[in-house]
């Protein structure tokens, strides 16, 4: 399994700048991520993966490279700038799902059964 992954389209400077800004304040980023997840969790099939990725990224035992990979993918999910606007029926979250799936696949060994169980429990409470 490879450590990295690639995207067919590179992030623009503006997108990378927005990701960096949102990730500088982890508490604010967490609030934005959880707020968006609350609003859309019932409509997106990757909600549990996204939340497990968030829990893994917040785990102090998670290696820095894994954290950055997951936070970058989750940052794309939170960003208002998207390849496909999120309000588009059926297609809006497909780019977000692809980015999160690629990140989760790249670091699959780091997302533990505990992260997944906590994600499932938290989603049930939403």
What does this structure look like?
It is a single chain. The protein has helices spanning 13-24, 26-40, 47-58, 64-78, 94-106, 113-125. The model is unreliable at 1-7 (pLDDT under 50). The chain has six helices and no strands.
**How many extended strands?**
0
Topology as a string of helices (H) and strands (E): HHHHHH
Secondary structure category: mainly alpha
Total count of helical runs of at least 4 residues = 6
**Overall morphology:** globular
**Residues in β-strands, percent:** under 5%
Give keywords.
126 residues; mainly alpha; globular
Concise structural overview:
This protein is mostly helical and 126 residues long. The protein is 63% helix and 0% strand.
Outline the secondary-structure elements.
Blueprint: H1 13-24, H2 26-40, H3 47-58, H4 64-78, H5 94-106, H6 113-125
């Amino acid at each position: 399994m490879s450590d990295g992954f690639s995207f067919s389209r590179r992030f623009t400077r503006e997108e990378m700048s927005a990701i960096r800004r949102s990730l500088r304040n982890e508490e604010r980023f967490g609030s934005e991520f959880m707020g968006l997840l609350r609003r859309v969790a019932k409509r997106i099939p990757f909600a549990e993966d996204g939340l497990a990725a968030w829990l893994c990224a917040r785990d102090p035992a998670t290696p820095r490279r894994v954290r950055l990979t997951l936070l970058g993918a989750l940052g794309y999910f939170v960003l208002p700038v998207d390849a496909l606007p999120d309000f588009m029926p059926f297609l809006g979250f497909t780019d977000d799902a692809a980015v999160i799936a690629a990140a989760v696949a790249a670091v699959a060994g780091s997302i533990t059964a505990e992260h997944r169980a906590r994600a499932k429990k938290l989603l049930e409470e939403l």
